Amino acid sequence: MRINVSKLRAIIAEANAANAPILPLQHRVRALRLARSELRIRLDRPGDDEKKRKSIRAEIADLEKQIETIDTEIEEHQDRATATGRLAMRCRDFARERGLLPPDLETN
């Protein structure tokens, strides 16, 4: 039996790369949540008129929409990373069981 090592490498590379977009998105959503928290604190401060409070509420609503959008995107990337990771693991195991796994792919 033979396996296509180049396809195996491509599957493993795709699985390794699938996590790459997640971390920057997590950093972005963390920054947005911090900004939202700071706005909520400002909203609770006494002394601001209703016009200012309305503006702050609108900013908070905008941040919440952005957070929701990015959270959805993170979830989609995580689902993809999980699926590609499982596929890569199964392909690697298949090749290993048949003694056809190249040594450099053993630990990737």
Structure description:
With 108 residues, this protein is mainly alpha-helical. The chain has three helices and no strands. The chain has helices at residues 5-17, 22-44, 50-97. It is rod-shaped. The mean pLDDT is 93.
Instruction: Tell me the span between the first and last alpha carbons.
Output: 23 Å
Helix content: over 70%
Q: How many helices?
A: 3
Radius of gyration: 23 Å
Major sheet: size, sense and barrel closure?
none
The residue-averaged pLDDT reads 93
Overall geometry: rod-shaped
Residue stretches low in confidence (pLDDT < 50, at least 5 long) are none
Return the structural class: mainly alpha
The proportion of strand residues reads: under 5%
One letter per element, helices H and strands E, the order comes to HHH
β-strand number: 0
Describe the structure using short key phrases.
108 residues, single chain, 0% strand, mainly alpha, 78% helix
Show the helix and strand layout:
Elements: H1 5-17, H2 22-44, H3 50-97
Helix pairs in contact: 1-3, 2-3
In short:
This protein is mostly helical. The protein has helices at residues 5-17, 22-44, 50-97. The two termini are 23 Å apart.
